Automatic annotation (TrEMBL):
GO molecular function: hydrolase activity, acting on glycosyl bonds; kinase activity; metal ion binding; pseudouridylate synthase activity
Residue span, Carbohydrate kinase PfkB domain: 66-301, 338-392
Domain of life: Eukaryota
Protein name as annotated: Carbohydrate kinase PfkB domain-containing protein
Similarity field: Belongs to the carbohydrate kinase PfkB family.
Pfam families: PfkB
Organism of provenance: Lolium multiflorum (Italian ryegrass)
Keyword check for Kinase: yes
Keywords: Kinase, Metal-binding, Transferase
Any one Gene Ontology cellular component term annotated for this protein: cytoplasm
UniProt cross-references to SUPFAM superfamilies, sorted A to Z: Ribokinase-like
Presence of the UniProt keyword Kinase in the record: yes
Length: 421
C-alpha cells in the first residue's frame, strides 16, 4: 500500500511538473538521409507555407467584407520551387519546418501525395506552421498580404541544416530562400563553399533581400526583381545609393527594356563586383535580364545530374537553338567580359500571378540540372512561369514538356544581347 501511494504521488508530481515547466519542442520527423551512396540531388532550404488566397468577385470595399473565393494552397518560395522542379522531373531534397497543426498536416499530406521526400522536413509541437494570407483583385494582382513565418527562422536552425551536410556537399546546387535566419544562411553557405557547391539565393521580399549582405561572397546566383535588386545593392553599399523608379509608360516593350537597363545596370554591375556570378533579374511582363561574366558554371559536376525523361525532351527540342547573332559563350572557363541579355516574357491568359516567379526559378534550376545551358534554362523558366499564371494553384498540376519546349524556343529566338564588354 505504501509503495502504491508513493507511486501515485510520483505520478501526480510528474503531471504537475509537465504542466508547470516549459516543454521543449518535440521532433516528430527527424530522419536525415545519411546514406553516403544517396544519388546527388539539388538541395532546397527554406519555407513551407500555407497560402490563404482570397479573391473578391466584386470590387473590395475598405472596412467590410465582400463575396468572393477563399482557398487553401500549398505555398512558400522554397517549397514552390522544389515542387516545380519535381514536376519537371528533378527530385530535390527539401529542408524545412512545419508545426504539428492543421496547416502543417495539410502541407505534409500534399507533399507525400506528390511522392516527395519528407525526411528533411522538421515537424514540431507548439509551433504555428508558416501561413501567408493574400488578398487579390479581380485580375489576380496582389492587393495586400500578411505573412507569419517566424517558425522558419526559429526552428530551421544551423544544427538541423548540419544534419544534411553530406547531401549539401554532394548536391549539384543549393538553393536558399531569405526566410532563413542570417545564422542559418551562413551555416548553409559554409557547407556549400567547403564542397564547391554553387548557391542560389532567392530574395523573397524587399525587406529580407538585404540578408544577402553577410553571405554575398558565397552566392553564385540570385534572382531578384527590380526593387529587390536595388535593395540588395544598397545593403552591400551606402543605403540609398541605388534606386529604381517604376516606369509609368513607354512607347513599346524595347523602349521599356532599354530604360530598365539604364536604371538597373549600376546595381547589377555592382553585385557582380561583390562576387555574385550570375544575376537573373525578373522584370514581370518585360521578361528577364541575365547578367553575368561571359563564362560561368552554375551546376557542380553536371555529369552526375540525372537526365530525366522530361529534361531529355527539353534538351532534344532546344539543342542547337540559340539567339540569333549572339557570339557569346556562357559556359566554360571564366572571362573578364560582363554580359547582359534580355529574354522577353511570353503572353499569357492571367488567372493568378502568385507562384509565377517561383516557377521561373524552378524551371531554371531543373533545366540546369538536366544539362541545358543558362540561356536555354532561363527560357524554360519563362515558359514554366507562363504555365503558372494560367493556373489557380501556385504550381500547375502538371507541365507539358512539348509546350514548355515550344515556348522556350520562341523566347530564345527573341532574346537580345544588351551589353557585353
Amino acid at each position: 500500500m505504501a509503495e502504491d501511494a508513493a507511486s501515485s504521488s510520483r505520478r501526480r508530481m510528474e503531471s504537475i511538473r509537465r504542466h508547470l515547466l516549459p516543454r521543449p519542442p518535440l521532433i516528430l520527423s527527424l530522419n536525415p538521409l545519411s546514406a553516403p551512396e544517396a544519388e546527388p540531388s539539388p538541395v532546397i532550404i527554406g519555407g513551407m507555407v500555407l497560402d490563404i488566397h482570397a479573391k473578391p468577385s466584386v470590387p473590395p470595399h475598405p472596412g467590410t467584407t465582400v463575396p468572393g473565393m477563399v482557398k487553401y494552397i500549398s505555398g512558400g518560395v522554397a517549397r514552390n520551387i522544389a515542387e516545380c522542379m519535381a514536376k519537371l522531373g528533378t527530385q530535390p531534397l527539401m529542408i524545412s519546418v512545419v508545426g504539428n497543426d492543421m496547416a502543417g498536416d495539410f502541407l505534409l499530406k500534399y507533399w507525400r501525395s506528390a511522392g516527395l521526400c519528407t525526411d528533411g522536413i522538421l515537424q514540431v509541437h507548439d509551433v504555428t506552421t508558416p501561413v501567408v494570407s493574400n488578398v487579390f483583385d479581380g485580375n489576380g494582382e496582389l492587393i495586400a498580404g500578411v505573412a507569419s513565418v517566424q517558425a522558419v527562422e526559429n526552428f530551421l536552425t544551423p544544427s538541423w541544416i548540419y544534419q544534411f551536410r553530406r547531401h549539401i556537399s554532394n548536391a549539384p546546387l543549393l538553393m536558399l530562400d531569405a526566410n532563413l535566419s542570417p545564422q542559418s544562411l551562413q551555416a548553409a553557405c559554409k557547407i556549400a563553399y567547403e564542397s564547391g557547391v554553387p548557391v542560389l539565393f532567392e530574395p523573397v521580399s524587399v525587406v529580407k533581400s538585404s540578408r544577402i549582405a553577410p553571405i554575398a561572397e558565397h552566392i553564385t546566383c540570385t534572382s531578384p526583381n527590380e526593387i529587390e535588386l536595388v535593395a540588395m545593392a544598397n545593403a552591400l553599399s551606402t543605403p540609398g545609393k541605388y534606386n529604381f523608379v517604376k516606369l509609368d509608360q513607354c512607347n513599346n516593350n524595347m523602349e521599356a527594356v532599354d530604360c530598365l537597363f539604364e536604371m538597373l545596370s549600376p546595381a547589377m554591375f555592382f553585385l557582380l563586383e561583390k562576387g555574385i556570378k550570375l544575376l537573373l533579374v525578373t522584370l514581370g511582363s518585360n521578361g528577364v535580364f541575365i547578367c553575368c561574366k561571359e563564362r560561368v558554371n552554375i551546376v557542380k559536376d553536371q555529369q552526375k545530374c540525372n537526365m530525366t525523361t522530361f529534361s531529355s525532351q527539353l534538351l532534344e527540342k532546344l539543342e542547337g537553338c540559340f539567339p540569333p547573332s549572339m557570339p557569346v559563350n556562357l559556359s566554360g572557363e571564366g572571362s573578364s567580359r560582363t554580359c547582359v541579355f534580355h529574354l522577353p516574357a511570353t503572353s499569357a491568359s492571367v488567372i493568378s500571378l502568385t507562384g509565377a516567379g517561383d516557377c521561373l526559378i524552378g524551371g531554371v534550376l531543373s533545366s540546369l540540372c538536366g544539362g541545358l545551358n543558362i540561356m536555354q534554362s532561363v527560357a524554360v523558366g519563362i515558359a514554366t512561369a507562363k504555365a503558372s499564371v494560367e493556373s489557380e494553384a501556385n504550381i500547375p498540376a502538371k507541365f507539358s514538356a512539348a509546350s514548355i519546349a515550344d515556348e522556350a524556343r520562341r523566347t530564345l529566338l527573341s532574346a537580345k544581347q544588351i551589353w557585353c564588354q
